[in-house]
Amino acid sequence: MPVGKAKPVEGAGFSQALTQALQSVSASQHQAVSMQREVQLDNPTVSIEETMVAMQKAQIGFQATLQVRNRLVQAYSDIMNMHV
């Protein structure tokens, strides 16, 4: 029986999910910075409360991203230190 090429995996892979999550965090940070700028320029359509919530969301997203990165680095380090 001849060996054929492996089929590509269907659906979203880990790298695609990670990329989307990073883009989401980046967009959240960009929105928070934009809202901060509008508040500083006294734009009446942007409230300080909405801006603070956006900043907190961006901060939480960033902290979660750091935790995922730390765990991935730890897992990689653990795997590399395994004896076979």
Number of helices in the DSSP assignment: 2
The average pLDDT value, as a whole number, equals: 88
Residue stretches low in confidence (pLDDT < 50, at least 5 long) are none
Order of helices and strands: HH
Gross morphology: elongated
Described by strand count, sense and barrel closure, the largest sheet is:
none
Q: End-to-end distance, in Å? A: 32 Å
Beta-sheet strand percentage? under 5%
Structure keywords:
single chain
Fold and architecture overview:
This protein is mostly helical and 84 residues long. The protein has one domain (18-80). It is 71% helix and 0% strand. It is built from two helices and no strands. The chain has helices spanning 14-40, 48-80. Helix 1 (14-40) packs antiparallel against helix 2. The longest helix is centred in the C-terminal third of the chain and has 33 residues, at 48-80. The model has no long low-confidence stretch (mean pLDDT 88).
Q: Could you provide a short overview of the structure?
A:
With 84 residues, the chain is mainly alpha-helical.
Secondary structure topology:
Layout: H1 14-40, H2 48-80
